[in-house]
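Standup notes, protein team

Yesterday: finished cleaning the Microbacterium luteolum set.
Today: CoF synthetase structure.
Blockers: none.

Input for CoF synthetase:
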Amino acid sequence: MSRLRILREFAAVRWGRPLRTRAAVERRQARLLRRHLRFLRHRSPHFRRLLETHAFAELPLMDKSVMMGRFDEINTVGVQRDEALALAIANERSREFDADLGENSVGLSSGTSGHRGLFIVSPRERDAWVGTVLARTLPRGRLTGHRIALFLRADNSLYESVGSKVVSFSYFDVYADMDENIRRLEAYRPTILVAPPSVLRLIARAADAGRFRTVPQKVYAVAEVLEIADEERIATSLRQPRIHQLYQCTEGFLAHTCEAGVIHLNEDSVLFEREQLDDQRFTPIVTDLRRRAQPIVRYRLGDVLRACTGPCRCGSALAAIERIEGREGDTLVFRGLDGRRVPVFADVMSRALLYAEGFDEYRVVQTNASLLEISLDVLDDRTMGSVTAEVDALAERLGCERPEIVFQPYMRDGSVKLRRVARTWRGDADEEL
């Protein structure tokens, strides 16, 4: 790990790229895109072929299946998919993550879709990632002595300690015993806490019980959708004015929360195309303009983002989004009174359940055209009646038939990313939306 490269990236992101106008953002993106396409023509067999006959805007979209199926031709460092996959799986099973493939870091990602993905990152990209994340996360003013606690499903040399007095990282395995994790966390006294919302909920409960007394300067939610109710509960218990978010996935570091509490897309290094779902919501198609070992070019994520309608008071011209709502494939489908299919975005369902009472943990899964399985940690008549009333009221507001509801006990599964709202039924719903 090159501390000089990390420092240069930190300084560039923190102070060297103010990007106060959209014109400045677009000029930088155009310059980086020209440079990136030249590199791809020389170094990636997959994109060399495509760019011979396609302009950038005409390139076919990528997704996880394309990346995994053509991994050997896409990457530019000569890594073979089977070899990288074997190492990543071995690391996962042993829960030891210090083995790299040559000088490159490899890892697995299941994402919220449940499909396995593989990522590879070069040393230069690793350093740039560390510098960028530190620039986006360290509080304004104090820059030294920070202790960052990372709760992750898989460690990687990408997350290892920078090893200096400026900042240190400590990895906490979410598969490990949570009580022991809490004891380690209290002893570590993090100034910055980074964890999935489901883990932050457990830490918040520990704080309520007096088992975690440290008050971090910042708390970041990662990897899972941060629901409004969860955000409020976590912020109160951990004594935070707000919970920040890092939108980080296999495909790159995509967004961060600014000091004003607004999520901004990292457009200084990632190009975002928008596939509109309605007036505000869109699915992003991303091109990482600086990632070279494993190029991410016109990659359709399948997430649902909701755009802000006005500029952010922080002054940044980077596009702002109001919420990261979840996976497009988890949009519920209600049957309208007129027979049409009506999309119910995950955030809409979550907001409806804000008004229900009597429970703390929940999950909503659509398993059939008119059937919702709702898991609750409290299953008494009052609670189930309250939830049913809010779901029925939502259906009425949308002009839809009331779905049948089956209640069941809520069971936490720390081995997978939490999706509060999901749809496992497909049928003909996707074609008709």
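Follow-up from PR in the comments: The two ends are 47 Å apart (CA to CA).
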